[in-house]
Each structure stands twice: as C-alpha cells, then as structure tokens.
Amino acid sequence: MMMQPTKRNGKRRVKKTNVKRCYCEGHCPDGQQNGTCEIRSGGVCFTSVEAVYDDIQDKDVPFYTFGCLPDDERGLMQCKGHLVPHEQSKSIQCCNEKDECNKFLRPTYPERPTPETPGFGSADSLPFTVLLTTVTFCLTLVLLVVAIVYVKNRRKEMQRKFGLYGKGYATEKYPKMEVHGPLTNLIEQSSGSGSGLPILVQRTISKQIQMIHSVGKGRYGEVWLAKWRGTKVAVKVFFTTEEQSWFRETEIYQTVLMRHENILGFIAADIKGTGSWTQMLLITDYHEFGSLHDYLQDHCLDPTSLLLMSQSIASGLSHLHTEIFGTKGKPAIAHRDIKSKNILVKRNGECCIADFGLAVKYLSDTKEIDVPPNVRSGTRRYMAPELLDKSMNVHNFDAHKMADMYAFALVLWEMGMRCVTGDKLKIAEEYAVPYYDCAPSDPSFEDMQLVVCVKKIRPQIPLRWESEEVLQALAKVMQECWHPNPDVRLTALRVKKTLSKLDTDTTIKIV
C-alpha cells in the first residue's frame, strides 16, 4: 500500500491510498515480460487457466495466465466463472488480500468435452465401413493372386530342375507314352541308365498310384502304403516346409549308379497340385517290416540275423561312400543322418538305407561338396563328437563320412543289445536307444555335447557279449567306429570286409 504526503494546519500528513501489486505473466501492461502490475480500489489480481493441446504429449495440458483486473474491466470477467465472451472455456480465480497474491493460485480447468463417436450403424460411419471393407477385400484378392502365381512359378522351377514336366508337357513335346508290364520289369529294363526310371515313366506311375493308408510320419513328411498295378509301394509325401529335403533326396536318388540292394529302391518322384496347392511325392520300394528302430522293439535277433543285418548296412554305406569312376560313374555320397529310423528291414533279413534329405555329394572333378549352411543337421542323439563340439571341418568330405561311421556304430549297438545269447536260456536286453541312460528322451544339442564330448561317455557293452563270436567282433568294430578321433575310425569298406570274414551259420532267421 502506498502513502501520499498532504499538508494540514501547517503539518505534513501521510494519506493512505488502496493500491496493490499483482504478479503478471502473459497479461502484463505495455507488453512487458513477467513482472508486476498495479490495481486500485475495486480491482483484483487474477489467475486464469485453459486447456491447450500438446502434440508431443498427445494430450491437453494447463496454460496459466496471471495479471491485474481493474474495477472498470471486471464486467468482462467473472472471477468464479469464465471469460465472456470466449469460445474456449477458461477457469478464473481472483484475490486482493495482499501483493502478488495471485502468483500461487492454480485453478483447475474444465475438461474438454469428448465429441460423440458415431455408432457402427449410424449414417456417419457407413461410408467409412464400406471403404474399409472394399480396401480389405481388394488387398486380400491381390495377395491371393500373388500367392497363386508364386506357387505356380515355384512348381515350374522344381519341375525344370529335376526334369519333372508340367501338365501337358509330355503330349506337346513327346509322343504319348504307355507304361506296360510289372514294376520290377520296368526297373530292370531301365537299370542300364543307372539313375532310375525315365522321367515320363515316373510321372505316369505317380498319376496311377492308389493310396491305401498312412504307415508313419517323420520329420520331413508322411509315408503311405500305396499300390501301382497291384504292386505295393511306399509314397513319402513331404511337408510343404520341407521343399529342400525333397530337392536333395530326389537329386541323390537320381544319381547315376545309385541303385544297390542295400539302398532303398527309388521308383519315381513327382510334384502334384493346382495353382494354390503343391504336393511333393517320392515313390520307393515298400518294406512291410518297417524301420529297424520299430523292428527291434518287437523282435530279438540271433547272431546269424545280427551279422546279416550288420553286413548289409555296412555294404550299403560302403556303396554310398565310394566314388565310382567312368562315363556312368557315381560320386561319393555322405548320408549325414544315419540312425535306426532311417534304415529299413527287408523280407530277406537284410537292411537298406533310406532318407537322403541331408546327404551331400563330393564332386571330385571340382573337389567341392555341396554342404548346407547348417552344420548341425542330423539327429542330435547320433551326432559325432566333432559335430557336437563344432571342431569338424565341414568342407572336408572325409569328415562327413567319418561322422556317418560314428552313427553307424550306435546302430550296431542297438542291434547287439537285442541279440540273444545263451544255449538254453536266451537272454537279450529290452530295446533302448543309444545313451538312453544318460540323456533325456529328446536331448538338446547341449545335452549330447555334455555326455559325448565333456564326459566322453559311450554306450555300455554287456559282459554277455563275450560269449558270442559275432557280438565280440561287433563290439570291437563299434569301439573303433565311435572313437573320439575321426581319423582312426574304420571306414565302411573296412567294416564290410571285417564282417564278411566271420564264420557263422548262413541260415537267415527272423525271430
């Protein structure tokens, strides 16, 4: 409050005037920045607040204004209401009890009304709904067309790569081909080519296949029992995600001189389907006893049967690993997934090797192997130590062959455990997979690495094997083949020759 001097009866008096200072910000006189302004009797200090939308915070934030409200301007503002007239709602608070009393006033601003959203069925929302539906339909249609074109082109690419001609190709480029006679005769007649039946014959056979029922499902597809002109065949239908496995297996089977009595007999490969659906088929010989894994669970072996099976697997693996030179030669091939589930039992007591989806070929003329980028491919339980500890040189073809020999040793152990010994009381262990007693049922890569590489565990060989010559010989072969050093393992050819020297009864028994 300011005091003004006056004179009365010759004396100086101080006259009181009712003047106060208000804090001002955003409403200061003469355009000055934050400071103070004065009010006289009847005026008040005020603080106003309004909601201002902040783009960064994406919400309304309060914006305060401070200043003086002279008495002659109070008609434009109500201290407990809002500015009049004003489109934006503002909350006002006033005071005049002391200087700058408004500096700490913080009125709350009224919430901005939320506009009503039109309902789904209202007139305002109908155009948007129609537009959204139309755009969605058109986008779905475009994606469907793109998918159909992609699948068609992909199938044509596969057909070109493997010579599997599309629909109508044979009638356009070649005269109509009739396939006569039983399947065995066709295979015998075409064996001179060394790589299976002619492509057009394969396609004809695949069209005439009659599916009967599913006999098993694996990592890459489902196997069906089927018939072609009364002959039982096996049809492996690959999952659509296993395109590369179908590529590789078809390519391996069509290798020159691949046919062998201990390699699963290849008949045909084909791609069926429409523009939006593709089915990749592999047709092979059918063996009713199924895989060695399944067979050993229900059957025991005698030493003669065990030796015959072991010799046949070694013979098939030796043929696979061996390069045959000549015009109609055969490259060396490593299987890379040897296990009892990938070996089939034939009616004559022998075995044959199947499933070449991970196999690699060695091209001696260029000294190259087509190794997939994933060096861990295969079944973890049967992986060699050098695969588990990542010390294997994947560009060395002999390393892949030695990894096969390690896995082969585990298969020999599986068969040996089911071989009976004893003259009167026939003894054999229950079927078990390798490392059943020290690894989980579905072991991880780390689980097998700990068992095989760190602890250096190998399957136990029962003492009862010492009483049987065949089991004694197999035990020695196994131990040399699962040696931690790949360089000292036996080759498939050496194992084949070793087993062929054993003198046993040649009578075949399937117990």
Automatic annotation (TrEMBL):
Protein's UniProt keywords contain Transcription regulation: no
GO function terms (MF aspect): ATP binding; metal ion binding; transmembrane receptor protein serine/threonine kinase activity
Gene Ontology cellular component terms for the protein in this record: plasma membrane; receptor complex
Enzyme Commission code: 2.7.11.30
Locations listed in the record: Membrane
SUPFAM superfamilies cross-referenced by the UniProt entry: Protein kinase-like (PK-like), Snake toxin-like
Catalytic reactions on record: L-threonyl-[receptor-protein] + ATP = O-phospho-L-threonyl-[receptor-protein] + ADP + H(+)
Binding sites annotated in the UniProt record for ATP: K236
Membrane topology: Single-pass type I membrane protein
UniProt-listed Pfam families: Activin_recp (PF01064), PK_Tyr_Ser-Thr (PF07714), TGF_beta_GS (PF08515)
Transmembrane segment boundaries: 128-151
Domain of life: Eukaryota
Domain Protein kinase positions: 209-502
Main location: membrane
Cofactor: Mg(2+); Mn(2+)
Entry-linked InterPro entries: Activin_recp, GS_dom, Kinase-like_dom_sf, Prot_kinase_dom, Protein_kinase_ATP_BS, Ser-Thr/Tyr_kinase_cat_dom, Ser/Thr_kinase_AS, Snake_toxin-like_sf
GO biological process annotation, one example: cellular response to growth factor stimulus
Statement: the UniProt record of this protein carries the keyword Transferase: yes
Entry-linked PROSITE patterns: GS, PROTEIN_KINASE_ATP, PROTEIN_KINASE_DOM, PROTEIN_KINASE_ST
Official protein name in the record: Serine/threonine-protein kinase receptor
Classification lineage: Eukaryota, Metazoa, Ecdysozoa, Arthropoda, Hexapoda
